[in-house]
Design brief:
With about 180 residues, the protein is α+β, with helices and mostly antiparallel strands. It folds into 2 domains: about 100 residues, no CATH class; about 60 residues, no CATH class. The strands form 2 sheets. The chain has a 4-stranded antiparallel sheet, with no helix packed on it. Strands 2-6-5 form a 3-stranded antiparallel sheet, with no helix packed on it. Strand 5 and strand 6 form a beta hairpin. Helix 2 crosses helix 3. The C terminus is likely disordered.
Length: about 180
């Protein structure tokens, strides 16, 4: 799973000149993306044909672990396709002809398209967190160590999300924090 933004997008968004070594920026963006995914417990990027086997616990409902659910590509119970169900974007699948009795294998598409407003919000939060780590580290390094970067002096950059950034994440993610 890649980061929500590239180093080039970071430079475009911040107005910063592209540095000769983009790997540091890309590492910070990867760290910020991992933090966002960890805090939300969601992949968030679009995943097609993800497959999961669920054990029914509520009879009429199943709850998929990833949201938003874009499509259900197939549901199999005991090698038999099931077509009598409804689902919500939040990942609740309701069987319309009875209860889920056995383990259910669901193949589904979830996450946000890279062109969606929600994904752009996630990308913005990712860039803000990476930018804070990059620029605070640069300022601190020049103040404390001359031209030495903090990580070369033994201080790793800190990537974190503010409360406002967590609340700006789309959908059910706004409740995180």
């Amino acid at each position: 799973m890649g980061p929500f933004a590239t180093a080039t997008e970071f430079c475009e968004w911040t107005g910063m000149a592209i540095p000769p070594d983009l790997s540091r920026l890309q590492t910070l963006l990867s760290s910020a993306s991992a933090l966002i995914r960890g805090i939300t417990g969601q992949t968030l990027s679009k995943v097609t044909a993800d497959q999961i086997t669920l054990e029914p616990t509520y009879g009429y409902w199943l709850f998929l672990p990833e949201a938003p659910v874009i499509a259900i590509d197939g549901i199999i119970v005991d090698a038999v396709p099931i077509t009598t169900y409804t689902f919500t974007m939040a990942g609740k699948i309701t069987r319309t002809d009875g209860k889920w009795m056995d383990n259910v294998t669901v193949t589904y598409t979830h996450g946000y398209e890279e062109t969606s407003q929600e994904f752009l919000q996630i990308k913005m939060v990712c860039i803000e967190a990476a930018s804070r780590a990059y620029t605070l580290n640069e300022r601190s390094a020049s103040e404390a160590m001359g031209s030495t970067l903090m990580e070369t002096a033994g201080y790793a950059p800190e990537v974190f999300l503010t409360q406002g950034e967590m609340q700006s994440l789309p959908g059910t993610l706004a409740a995180v924090g």
